[in-house]
Amino acid sequence: MRLITRERPGRFVDPDTTADGSPRARVALGRLETLWLNTGTLCNLTCEHCYIESSPSNDRLEYLTREEARRYLDELALLGHGTHTIGFTGGEPFMNPHFMGMLEDALRAGHRALVLTNAMKPMRKCGEDLLALLPRFGERLTIRVSVDHHDPALHRQERGRRTWEPMLEGLRWLSGAGFHLAVAARTRWGDDEPVLRSGFAELFAAEGIAVDAHDPERLVLFPEMDAQAPVPEITEACWGILGVDPAQVMCASSRMVVKRKGAREPAVVACTLLPYEPRFELGSRLADALGTVPLNHPHCAEFCVLGGSSCG
């Protein structure tokens, strides 16, 4: 008699078990606190390490329309989850011709809005419309600008040679106008956090930018994400071993809407980090997306659980 053995599947394959057969960690949606609207993957820049591969030619995620976004805002009201924030990400949101209407609709509906931008030419073209929102909604609108490092050379290394001065000009304009500001930076160059924050504090002071670099909500430091990195899979036992509360993981409180190129309608995905992964698509309606999410991707481990980060 010949013994037949079955090889276990590889890492991050089976939604229920890890490669060693352990029960895979899952995260339940507690309350939908943040709904992200991906406005489309087109961007005015091609960054060196963009997790979503945004560029002037990447339209894998089409422009979300104002009507489509409004449908999800209406559904939020019916679900009664008490959603706090509508986040707008891309690509570069200000390139979407429907974006300013979507932003105003979210604010009119009583939500807070968080807009991720590189603060360059597309944003400045919308300057008058943005300023018009300040008197009515300024307390509920936050603009988060991507500044990869306080060293201009490192920022340019990530974003391109002619990106520092236009970004800084946009950041100064936002600060001078009185917008509630935040900045997103990266830890890819290995700086110790206190050193990195001190460097940004010097930059903000020199440029007159109203951001407290020592406030983790105003200067957000993101770990790198590498889908090929040998990160461990997260099992149910890891919560206790690592001392991590699954309720603090991003997919416990947020979902994202995307519009795939050629799709008839938008879809809801588990989080901002996995816009292209079919296995993390949860349906076309928010009501379809309120269940648990298996942590079945390297980003789940590297960014969320071990990195302790969230896009919100």
Describe this structure in words.
This protein is α/β, with parallel strands linked by helices and 312 residues long. The chain has 9 helices and 11 strands. The chain has helices spanning 66-79, 99-108, 121-125, 127-137, 152-159, 164-177, 193-207, 238-242, 298-305; strands at 26-28, 34-38, 85-89, 112-117, 141-146, 180-186, 219-222, 254-258, 267-269, 281-283, 292-294. α1 (66-79) packs parallel to α2 (99-108). The longest helix is centred in the middle third of the chain and has 15 residues, at 193-207. The protein is globular. The termini are far apart.
Give the topology.
Blueprint: E1 26-28, E2 34-38, H1 66-79, E3 85-89, H2 99-108, E4 112-117, H3 121-125, H4 127-137, E5 141-146, H5 152-159, H6 164-177, E6 180-186, H7 193-207, E7 219-222, H8 238-242, E8 254-258, E9 267-269, E10 281-283, E11 292-294, H9 298-305
Helix pairs in contact: 1-2, 2-4
Give descriptors for this structure.
disordered N terminus; 312 residues; 11 strands; 9 helices; 9-stranded mixed sheet
How would you summarize what this structure contains?
With 312 residues, the chain is of the alpha/beta class. It is built from nine helices and eleven strands.
